[in-house]
């Protein structure tokens, strides 16, 4: 790791430690409000309104803790049950939904330990760098000089001055140590929060079922749309040309005896139409499963895409061996769609594709130096990519600030034992 990297990460972790101290204090009043709301439930039904409202604040605070943990490499899944149909903003149904969700009680159980952990680890994150900064700014020197002034009149003791200057290298050591340790302390706090805020095994299974239901519906819709596209392309393209080809050949047969010259022209036209129909069929086949993907694998297929791109595109690939066919296909079409978006919308002068496999995870990144401003909520291309990856438990993130650059990051499990991969490949 370069020097500026660990310094940057350390400074970010120190800033996160300061934020953690501020946020940890908020846990205590939230815990008090929850207990008061729970106690007041039998009293005129005040808790029926107050407790769900307090729970919203607690969940927002817990979500913030999950996001800050993610900053330091600790992923915590949201475990809450989906809101049942017909549940309003207030009332018994909403109260019952909140109070019977085990995640609510796990959040409440985290509030006080989270406050203690946040304060302690936040202070530790700040202590070492602060002590180092104190040494670097030679604060002990001025203390020694002040003592020398008061104890020796106008004579400043040389020993105290030397000790003061020795605090400079000591401060540098403590500052560097603090910046190195700070990210680990932030990660430890994320792991501490995960003990409370992560879903239980039962909740994970419930969330998995919900996710599978959603992605299954998305996959079915995507497959139906793909079939309609193939049918439309066949009907409007190759099929129409083949019908025209048959009519041209039939007309040539009628004219071959009495007007051979016209018949030859019609046959020449038929030959051109057959070539065009063949090209369209090849494009259609490539849209279903490109031959280059079957022959060369993901690496070769993506490099072929880069060569045909109108924008200069580099490929950095570290994907040894072949992946499961469904995974390769999903990754290829996701990269192809991302590069198509670059050519259509980015006004970029350069693009790149990065593909790396780490264990059972395939990480894809497509970026450009264009104008940015891409939005997943506009259009269907990015949303289609996300649905295609979600069918394999994959994820996609987009970074595209106005003015660029645009970076699309995709992660896709590529283990042959992945449940979605097995289902998609037709394994019984």
UniProtKB/TrEMBL annotation:
Keywords annotated in UniProt: ATP-binding, Kinase, Membrane, Nucleotide-binding, Phosphoprotein, Transferase, Transmembrane, Transmembrane helix, Two-component regulatory system
Query: Which catalysed reactions does the entry list for this protein?
Result: ATP + protein L-histidine = ADP + protein N-phospho-L-histidine
Gene3D superfamilies with a match to the protein in the record: 1.20.5.1930, Histidine kinase-like ATPase, C-terminal domain
- The segment(s) forming the Putative sensor domain are 18-197
Histidine kinase/HSP90-like ATPase domain boundaries: 330-414
According to the UniProt entry, what is the EC number of this protein?
Answer: 2.7.13.3
Ranges for the Signal transduction histidine kinase subgroup 3 dimerisation and phosphoacceptor domain? 226-293
* Regions that span the bilayer: 12-32, 38-58, 119-145, 165-185
Q: Which SUPFAM superfamilies match?
A: ATPase domain of HSP90 chaperone/DNA topoisomerase II/histidine kinase
Gene Ontology MF annotations: ATP binding; phosphorelay sensor kinase activity; protein dimerization activity
Instruction: List the residue ranges forming a coiled coil, or say none.
Output: none
Q: What GO CC terms are in its UniProt record?
A: membrane
| Matches recorded under InterPro entries | HATPase_C_sf, HATPase_dom, Put_sensor_dom, Sensor_HK_TwoCompSys, Sig_transdc_His_kin_sub3_dim/P
Q: Does the keyword Transcription apply?
A: no
The identity of this protein, by name, is histidine kinase
């Amino acid at each position: 790791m370069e020097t500026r990297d660990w310094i940057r990460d350390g400074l970010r972790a120190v800033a996160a430690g300061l934020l953690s101290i501020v946020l940890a204090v908020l846990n205590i009043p939230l815990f008090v409000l929850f207990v008061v709301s729970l106690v007041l439930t039998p009293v005129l039904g005040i808790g029926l309104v107050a407790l769900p409202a307090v729970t919203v604040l607690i969940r927002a605070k817990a979500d913030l803790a999950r996001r800050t943990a993610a900053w330091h490499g600790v992923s915590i899944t949201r475990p809450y049950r989906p809101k049942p149909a017909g549940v309003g903003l207030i009332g018994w149904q909403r109260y019952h939904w909140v109070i019977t969700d085990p995640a609510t009680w796990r959040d409440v159980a985290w509030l006080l330990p989270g406050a203690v952990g946040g304060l302690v680890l936040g202070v530790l994150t700040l202590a070492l760098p602060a002590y180092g900064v104190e040494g670097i700014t030679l604060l002990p020197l001025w203390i020694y000089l002040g003592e020398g002034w008061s104890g020796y009149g106008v004579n400043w003791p040389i020993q105290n001055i030397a000790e003061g200057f020795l605090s400079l290298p000591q401060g540098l050591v403590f500052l560097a140590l603090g910046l190195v340790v700070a990210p680990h302390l932030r990660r430890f706090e994320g792991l501490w929060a995960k003990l409370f805020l992560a879903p239980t095994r039962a909740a994970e299974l419930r969330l998995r079922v919900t996710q599978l239901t959603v992605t299954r519906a998305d996959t079915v819709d995507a497959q139906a749309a793909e079939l309609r596209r193939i049918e439309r392309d066949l009907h409007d393209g190759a099929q129409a040309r083949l019908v025209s080809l048959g009519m041209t050949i039939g007309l040539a047969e009628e004219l071959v005896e009495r007007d051979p010259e016209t018949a030859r022209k019609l046959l020449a036209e038929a030959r051109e139409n057959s070539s065009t129909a063949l090209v369209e069929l090849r494009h259609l086949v490539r849209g279903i499963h490109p031959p280059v993907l079957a022959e060369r694998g993901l690496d070769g297929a993506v490099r072929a895409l880069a060569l045909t791109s109108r924008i200069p595109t580099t490929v950095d690939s570290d994907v040894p061996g072949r992946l499961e066919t469904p995974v390769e296909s999903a990754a290829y079409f996701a990269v192809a769609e991302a590069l198509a978006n670059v050519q259509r919308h980015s006004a970029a002068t350069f693009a790149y594709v990065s593909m790396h496999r780490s264990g059972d995870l395939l990480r894809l990144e497509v970026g450009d130096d264009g104008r940015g401003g891409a939005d997943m909520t506009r259009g269907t291309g990015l949303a289609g990519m996300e649905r295609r990856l979600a069918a394999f438990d994959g994820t996609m993130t987009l970074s595209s600030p106005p003015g660029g650059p645009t970076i699309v990051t995709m992660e896709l499990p590529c283990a042959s034992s992945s449940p979605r991969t097995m289902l998609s490949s037709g394994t019984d």
